């Protein structure tokens, strides 16, 4: 049994944490209630029925369930329209689909949050030599670095006054960098400033890992188009694949035509009998996000109380995504902690995590991922490059109880080495 393997001092510290963190947990519960209210209301307003779960094959024409699902996603994300499809396989796929639909030869896009995820480098054309990258197809790319974990407003406004930029992109989450994630308030502020000088530029937000963490989404504060994966927050740990693009109706039409074909757009696309999972995943998503956040807060608190520094966010900081970074000081700590997460995974718990090379990464990596859906990051997972300062990136946790057990065993692994 897992509880029997956990160090007694850690169990005592965890018990103490319940009272200390109770106000933070209550605020997370409040956000969950607000988001649950919005989602449940959208289900009721759109008259979701059992018939909407029907398996539609072939071309996928006249799928009323799919159409209702997309109206609900649009409502939840504060947008006019949405595209929610199993044919969108990942967050990276959703981002590439959107950018390639909206950007043509000679257009310029600017990342307003510095360098994007590593997985997007080749897609843009910053690395590799793909003939399908944006740069290979004549799209000009620029980026403006963040300043003190916030937008460089002066540089952004000066550049956009030139009126020759087609699209600006904001990556809400820190991803696998050391900068902090961007709150909805910060995103709203920069959107307001952009609109004061440029009405035409498309404002796109990569919303991965951030959905339902706050009570508003980027669409509620003026973003033109918002992109994400159903194997993260909005899939609720139930959707087995899929992604979404939500936003301005005309822009969604362009993205839909890129996914299918001109003249077809959203009308085509079989659901592979996944409507039930997509509806159910969205319905459960606020609770899944709530538990992931509580797991992250608990992890940060335990590490801070054990004397670890550079934990981000700190346990009492505002959060806008589900990612937690833990600086573990030594290679041994990093490996043992990651092994503990794998040991308490419901799937592949018997796999022993060891540093190993991974395609596309310049350093050996450790990765713990024992999820019901391969690659699902709303389920508890953790990974890190095996280099100083040995920072682990962790996210997810479908229930707080499972998350707590995993963290406590991971910490016990480290403590046994110290003892």
Describe, in plain words, how this protein is organized in 3D.
It comes from Amedibacillus dolichus. This is Methionine gamma-lyase family protein. By secondary structure, the protein is of the alpha/beta class. The chain starts with 7 loop residues before the first helix and ends with a helix. The strands form 2 sheets. Strands 1-7-6-5-4-2-3 form a 7-stranded mixed β-sheet, with helices on both faces. A 4-stranded antiparallel β-sheet has the order 8-11-10-9, with helices on one face. It is 39% helix and 12% strand. The protein is built from 11 helices and 11 strands. The longest helix is centred in the last third of the chain and has 31 residues. Helix 4 crosses helix 8 and helix 10 runs antiparallel to helix 11.
What's the short story on this structure?
The chain has 419 residues and is of the alpha/beta class. The protein is built from eleven helices and eleven strands.
């Amino acid at each position: 049994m897992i509880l029997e393997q956990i160090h007694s001092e850690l169990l005592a510290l965890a018990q103490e944490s319940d009272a200390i963190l109770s106000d933070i947990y209550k605020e997370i519960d409040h956000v969950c209630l607000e988001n649950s209210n919005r989602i449940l209301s959208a289900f009721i307003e759109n008259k979701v029925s059992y018939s909407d779960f029907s398996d539609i094959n072939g071309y996928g024409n006249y799928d009323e369930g799919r159409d209702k699902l997309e109206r609900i996603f649009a409502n939840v994300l504060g947008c006019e329209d949405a595209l929610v499809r199993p044919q969108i396989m990942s967050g990276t796929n959703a981002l590439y689909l959107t950018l390639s639909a909206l950007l043509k030869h000679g257009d310029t896009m600017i990342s307003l949050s510095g360098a994007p995820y590593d997985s997007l480098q080749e897609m843009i054309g910053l690395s590799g030599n793909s003939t399908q990258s944006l740069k290979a197809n004549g799209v000009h790319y620029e980026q403006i670095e963040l300043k003190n974990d916030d937008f460089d407003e002066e540089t952004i406004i000066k550049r956009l006054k030139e009126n020759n930029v087609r699209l600006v992109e904001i990556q809400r989450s820190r991803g696998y960098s050391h900068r902090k994630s961007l709150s909805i308030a910060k995103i709203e502020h920069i959107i307001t400033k952009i609109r004061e000088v440029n009405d035409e530029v498309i404002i796109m937000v990569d919303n991965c890992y951030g959905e339902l963490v706050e009570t508003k989404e980027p669409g509620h504060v003026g973003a033109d188009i918002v992109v994400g994966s159903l194997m993260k927050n909005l899939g609720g740990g139930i959707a087995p694949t899929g992604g979404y693009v939500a936003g301005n109706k005309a822009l969604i039409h362009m993205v839909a035509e890129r996914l299918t074909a001109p003249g077809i757009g959203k009308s085509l696309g079989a659901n592979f009998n996944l409507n039930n999972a997509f509806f159910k995943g969205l319905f459960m998503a606020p609770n899944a996000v709530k538990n992931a956040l509580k797991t992250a807060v608990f992890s940060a608190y335990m590490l801070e109380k054990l004397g670890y520094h550079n934990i981000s966010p700190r346990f009492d900081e505002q959060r806008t995504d589900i990612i937690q970074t833990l600086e573990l000081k030594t290679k041994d700590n990093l490996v043992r902690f990651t092994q503990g997460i794998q040991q308490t995974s419901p799937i592949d718990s018997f796999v022993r995590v060891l540093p190993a090379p991974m395609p596309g990464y310049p350093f050996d990596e450790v990765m713990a991922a024992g999820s019901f859906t391969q690659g699902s990051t709303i389920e508890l997972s953790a990974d890190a490059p095996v280099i100083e300062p040995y920072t682990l990136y962790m996210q997810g946790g479908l229930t707080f109880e499972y998350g707590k057990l995993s963290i406590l065993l991971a910490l016990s692994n480290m403590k046994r080495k110290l003892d």
